[in-house]
Amino acid sequence: MIKNVGIIGAGTMGSGIAQVAATADCKVKIFDLNQDALDKAKTALEKILNRLIEKGRIDAVEKNRIQGNISYVSDMKSFSDADMTIEAIVENIDIKKKVFQELESIVSENCIIASNTSSLSIASIASSLNNPERC
Fold first, then answer.
1. How would you write 93-131 as a 3-class SS string?
2. What is the 8-class DSSP label of residue 13?
């Protein structure tokens, strides 16, 4: 069962994935090297959740629960307890491969290492791992 999720990249896609996972009651950590990106992601989530309250889709208690499920981190080592990680970063295969290799050295051998790529080969990205079947 997936309960702890690590998201790499605090942009629009990463933040959206984090919101969905947190709503599903997963504990989520969003990682980005850029503190401004983390701050913007937190502010954007606040706005989205406030809109959902205005539309009557959630209440303040649910908003607080969702926000409480998300942490904003600047060190990927905090993913050591992740059941799944999802990268949502720039569409550059070399950067993704480097991130996947670093992740593999941090997470447990049972952690799923996933990508949100829309244009790159998952098999190519997975080939950077010692255990590509976990991708």
1. HHHHHHHHHHHHHHCCCCCEEEECCCCCCHHHHHCCCCC
2. H
Burial of 44 by CB count in 10 Å (0-12 exposed, 13-18 middle, 19+ buried)? middle
**Phi and psi angles of residue 73, each rounded to the nearest 5 degrees, phi first:** -125, 155
The token duo for 116 is 């949100």
Does this model's pTM top 0.85? My answer is yes
Q: 59-95: per-residue pLDDT in tens?
A: 999 999 999 999 999 999 999 999 999 999 999 999 9
- Spatial separation of the C-alpha atoms in residues 3 and 50, rounded to whole Å: 25
